[in-house]
Write a structure and sequence with these properties.
The structure is a single chain. This protein folds into 4 domains: about 55 residues, no CATH class; about 80 residues, Pdz3 Domain (Roll); about 190 residues, pyruvate-formate lyase- activating enzyme (Alpha-Beta Horseshoe), CATH 3.80.30; about 140 residues, Rossmann fold, CATH 3.40.50. It is built from 15 helices and 16 strands. It binds iron/sulfur cluster (SF4). The site of iron/sulfur cluster (SF4) has 9 residues, from loops.
Length: about 475
């Protein structure tokens, strides 16, 4: 006689299927899946050896990640890790701290894959799940908020102000701690969810409150002290606003944060041309950038001498603005603030040059690379190295002016499809491929900030547009691949 001893799986979100493993005299026979409606007659209780496991649909796979290497894609379903079901972000983070993982995945055709992964304990798989986003919204009203500077008419998600601790652990986003309840702080400490990335902006609590438009901003150090006592690793960021939290205020902030955290990134405020009726802010000039670099590099030498780590780092934009070369690769220690654009150019260059050395046979081709104004010279330099190694290849660099957000915005991550089409229509021909920087797309998608897709750019320009990796080695490899066929 066949008895149903164990329910296997349920499907995420609104649809539930229930699977049974069928046993006869203790021997496994087969798995059976039933839609919920058909399964209602079964008594769902542990007393009957029946329980429901959660499944989690993958909604995005990061480019260059372990998950991509494993050929996982959006739409696959995570069933378990190391034989354990995953209930929520806390479970997921817990398992990510392991170095050896056995991941069970269901592909869209119901095929089950078991994948063994060996990784560093702080390495991510590069998967995004729906459970990584909750509805936690920001309760601040920052004077420099980028969301407030978006033009009207974009997709709804671009107007959402997230400040979600769970996304911070899952995706590395920065959070402000102003909307955390005590019970959540307890949970973070209990589950040792670390590293934590925190937007500080100022260690002067009156100034922090003013900059963030929120009284709760004043409670920062109470929470930081608790995390510090619990030995959680903290990384901080400061969005520097001219005449507000710079100068001696910045010295005060660096001095107070240094004993508590692992690193601090200083990034310049981003100002678009859509700031009507917002707090008046001024962009940094070349001279300002030079002063900030001198100030922060002074701190770096002092801190390095005292305990061996620099702690405070400047984003690459400061050096571009100052017209100075970015520091060398080994100046960034273990690159603790890459997501803030700190050391990105040095790392990119290093990886690119390593990959170029590998050589390869190519056939005559012309390829195009799109970049923002800030990285224009940098990309020219790398393209020159590439064409010296592969003389068959011609590279056209297209520096896109940011008409969409305003000409003060020069970073490649804010290039829009609309600007690319408007500025390149009829001007690109005979290209084997046109590379558009990966950071100009919503993570794991083909959508650009203005809502234009990669496919729309391809069609409008009549070229093969490709998402060019944010990793130097991978971009070089992509260029070699299109150059050899
Ligand atoms: S924390 Fe400040 S900058 Fe971030 S979304 Fe909220 S208001 Fe905007």
């Amino acid at each position: 006689m066949i008895s149903c001893e164990k329910i296997l799986r349920t499907v995420h979100i609104d649809k539930i299927r229930i699977g049974f493993q069928a046993y006869q005299d203790g021997d496994f026979l087969s798995s059976i899946y039933l839609p919920l409606a058909s399964a209602r007659g079964f008594l769902l209780s542990k007393a009957h050896g029946v329980y429901i496991m959660k499944e989690h649909k993958i909604i995005a796979v990061a480019s260059g990640s372990i998950a991509q290497e494993l050929e996982l894609t959006a739409g696959d379903v995570l069933l378990s890790i190391n034989g354990q079901e995953i209930n929520d972000i806390l479970d997921y983070r817990w398992h990510m701290a392991e170095e050896n993982l056995l991941i069970e995945i269901k592909k869209p055709d119901n095929e089950i894959w078991e994948l063994e992964v060996e990784k560093d304990s702080d390495e991510e798989l590069g998967l995004t799940f729906a459970f990584m986003s909750s509805d936690r919204r920001c309760t601040n009203n920052c004077i420099f908020c980028f969301v407030d500077q978006q033009p009207p008419g974009l997709r709804d998600s671009l107007y959402i102000k997230d400040d979600d601790p769970y996304q911070s652990f899952a995706l590395g986003n920065y959070i402000t701690l102003t909307n955390l309840r005590d019970v959540e702080i307890d949970q973070i400490i209990k589950h040792r969810l670390s590293p934590i990335r925190i937007s500080v902006h100022s260690a002067n609590m009156e100034l922090r409150q003013m900059m963030m438009g929120n009284k709760k901003a004043r409670e920062l150090f109470k929470i930081l002290d608790r995390f510090h006592k619990a030995n959680l690793e903290m990384h901080f960021q400061v969005v520097l606003c001219k005449g507000i939290n710079d100068g001696y205020q910045l010295d005060f902030t660096i001095g107070l944060l240094q004993p508590l955290g692992k690193s601090l990134a200083i990034v310049p405020v981003g100002l678009t041309c859509h700031r009507e009726s917002l707090y008046p802010l001024e962009g940094f000039t070349r001279e300002d950038a030079i002063n900030v670099i001198m100030q922060v590099e002074g701190w770096q030498s002092q801190l390095k001498d005292s305990d061996g780590g620099k702690f405070v780092f400047l984003s690459d934009e400061w050096y571009v603005l100052a017209g100075l070369p970015v520091p060398a690769y080994n100046a960034y220690e273990d690159f603790p603030q890459l997501d803030n654009g700190v050391g990105m150019m040095a790392l990119f260059e290093n990886e690119f040059l390593e990959e170029v050395k590998k050589g390869q046979k190519t056939t005559p081709k012309k390829i195009g690379i799109i970049t923002g104004q800030a990285a224009g010279d940098f990309i020219y330099k790398l393209a020159k190295v590439f064409t010296e190694s592969f003389p068959d290849i011609t590279i056209d660099i297209h520096v896109i002016r940011n008409d969409f957000y305003g000409h003060e915005v020069t970073v490649s991550g804010l290039i829009t499809g609309r600007d690319i089409i408007a500025q390149l229509k009829g001007k690109v021909s005979g290209l084997t491929a046109l590379f558009i920087p990966e950071n100009a797309f919503r993570k794991g998608t083909h959508d650009m900030l203005c809502g234009t897709t990669l496919e729309e750019v391809s069609e409008a320009l009549g070229v093969n547009a490709i998402i060019g990796s944010s990793h130097g080695g991978e971009l070089c490899n992509q260029m070699r691949i299109v150059s050899r066929n």
